[in-house]
Amino acid sequence: MNILPRYSKITLKNRTISKSDNNNMKKEKHLGLGIALGVAIGSLIGIALDNIALWITVGLALGAGIGSRLGSRKDKNEPL
Length: 80
Fold this sequence. Notes:
By secondary structure, this protein is mainly α. The protein contains 2 helices and 2 strands; from the N terminus they run E-E-H-H.
């Protein structure tokens, strides 16, 4: 039986983990996913157009922006 999800705080040595830490981790997850997808798509476009350096940076910037926006949504039903 797992009793940990019932509590909002868990203390480990000198570190307190709360629900806000979990939300921050989700935001970072969205940011990392956005950056990874942006770089991948930018690389593909760069290879196709023979300008990899430009499109990797464009993909990185767009992916970071999209990932940041996905991580900052407060309501799941809120549009992008």
